[in-house]
């Protein structure tokens, strides 16, 4: 009996140590030159495969080119094997004047149910009053396809408590049901994309000749009620140079 108890205790200890080791806080670099990951897509794929776990920090040390959507899935998301396992993700630049860039018809960055993610465009997250946006996030694609195509940042599937702060955000999508920043629905939706903060950013068209139809677009589905996409804060942002002569162009 005593031998059996010792074995049981040893197994419980091993499981505890394994679970502790599987949620290690990690800091990795992202950029085209000299980084752990060449772009955000690759870093998010490592998170999706549970290669990065716990409280994750991604430092942007150089420009990135995204050839497909950088998708960050929810931690513990059902149906993904292996299962993402993180508590938070912090992204910020360590070198001034860098950008996350793509020219793709789909969203450049999409948070699919992801929670507790912060993109802070200040150098080393600022930390001093008066800090200004530095990191640029830009999708050059000017698609007119309907269905949230060509957006720069998209929230879907109950993405909650995320922050996009102090960034220069550019886009050129002509999607009539999309925008540079999109709060959308998804395949799995319970309450909406709630509690997100969009603060101290500069929103603008990609260039003088590539401007979007909408800067922001909030999209939902029938049946979700008044709580859908609620308690989101959009504050202290600048919106400029986005008027498109070829379409009706409201801000939202």
Essential attributes:
seven-stranded parallel beta sheet; mainly beta; 252 residues
Provide a short characterization of the protein structure:
With 252 residues, the protein is mainly beta. It has 2 helices and 18 strands.
> How many distinct beta strands?
18
**Relative strand content:** 25-35%
Main sheet properties? 7 strands, parallel
Helix content: 10-25%
Compute the CA-based radius of gyration.
20 Å
Q: pLDDT under 50 segments (min length 5)? A: 7-21
Strand order across the biggest sheet? 1-2-5-8-11-14-17
Distance between the termini: 69 Å
How many helices?
Answer: 2
Oligomer: single chain
Based on helices, strands and strand pairing, what is the structural class? Answer: mainly beta
Average pLDDT for all residues: 86
Describe the protein.
- With 252 residues, the protein is mostly beta strands.
- It has 2 helices and 18 strands.
- The strands form 3 sheets. The chain has a 7-stranded parallel beta sheet with strand order 1-2-5-8-11-14-17, with helices on one face. The protein has a 6-stranded parallel beta sheet with strand order 3-6-9-12-15-18, with no helix packed on it.
- Strand 1, helix 2 and strand 2 form a beta-alpha-beta unit.
- It is globular.
- About 6% of the residues have low confidence.
